[in-house]
Amino acid sequence: MITPLQVDPTTVANGINNVWVLVVTFLIFFMQPGFALLESGQVRAKNVGNVLMKNMTDWILGTLVYFIVGAAVAVMIGGLTSGGDIAGAFGHIGDSNAWIGWLFGAVFAMTAATIVSGAVAERMNFDAYVLFTVVMVALIYPVVVGFTWSGGLLASSGFIGGALGAGYLDFAGATVVHMCGGIAGLVAAKMVGARKGRYDANGNSQPIPGHSMLLAVLGTFILAFGWYGFNVGTQATILAVAADGTLTFMGSALGRVALVTTLGMAAGGAMAMLTSARYQGKPDPLWTANGILAGLVAVTGAVPHVTWWGGALLGGLGGFLVLPAFHFTVDRLKIDDVCGVFAVHGVAGAVGTALIPIFAVGGFALNQFVLQIVGVGVIALWTIVASAIVLAVIDALVGLRVTEAEETEGLDEGEHGVSVYPEFVPNESRDGTVAADGGELRTDGGSVLADTTAADAEVNVDE
Q1: Residue 247 gets which letter from DSSP?
Q2: Do residues 393 and 139 make contact, with C-beta atoms less than 8 angstroms apart?
Q3: Within 10 Å of residue 422's Cβ, how many Cβ atoms?
Q4: Alpha carbon distance 155, 165 (integer Å)
Q5: Reduced 3-state DSSP string for 114-129
């Protein structure tokens, strides 16, 4: 006789949902090498090691700080701006049942911190960057989480959300994560100052090409892959338990999030490709890659809330805006944002999240639209003020910028004593014959070494 297995459906659902959250958390973590490749490709060869070091530091220090301080700050801000309780703010430290949720939140925090490094590449003091990362993960980003996901100021239970009778909509962090990181990067880039040679004597911007478009585009694809964890993974419930105890697969919710993510990504890339062709005469691979990311950012807050065609329009709008937003930042504001993080993460995140009610599945609601606008403004204002104050203090303590000599030599040698491309980037201990980062000589057969000796010539003849 076979006895049916007695299983509590709630236990089954919770177990599967928790494993799902862990899997997508690991997928989001895989975005970290995507950021490393994307940013490395957009800097000169002499600064690649510094970019890699900053990306590793974001994860190394960021996780420690977010575990000890950041997650608790988010809970406290949530309580303080909603009249709620803050007694259990540090409860996750000793509660093993909370650790999966904490880890899921931590990978989002690391994303916000990493975005900043792309804006300040090639000239920011490494010590200053480390200090800013610590404060970003301990305070600046957690306060934004407290305002929103932790039930604070902008949530339906918060002071502003409650007054407007709505809760701020940002499903997976278009503004909470991406806009926060993009604006912090913009402020940092402004305060650190432009790279040497970025502007001429008349203040006109001069391009400084990165050393590898290949790395940048590969990084984009890795980020796009990880974004499915970012968006689809935030739909943390894949099995729900009905009142009668039956299990329900949340396929419709998962499908909407996955579809809107995909359409937003594609529309963003397509619009950026068309816009770059319009601006520059030919479609630009790097700007198309940025458009893919901007499209993803634009729909990140909207994926479960909008129609599929609304998601496509939001993604396309993000991709369309990325190039003019970058030129506005660099040419009008005179801010040297190396990787265009404000255009990709700041502008796309703000616009995509603000317009959610326009394309909402349930129809337009004025109070929700007002709250979205107010919410974007609150998060932006907090990030600007907090970042500026923190960076000013760090500047007074250790200085924000490397010396002119270090910048000329490259931050790999000046800050870390290494070279990612020792064959191509010269230093005092190596005979510098080939430079892949804007020097006179090229690695693709485009130039012949001018200082070839007679002896070398004779050897070549003998051969």
Answers
A1: E
A2: no
A3: 12
A4: 10
A5: HHHHHHCCCCECHHHH
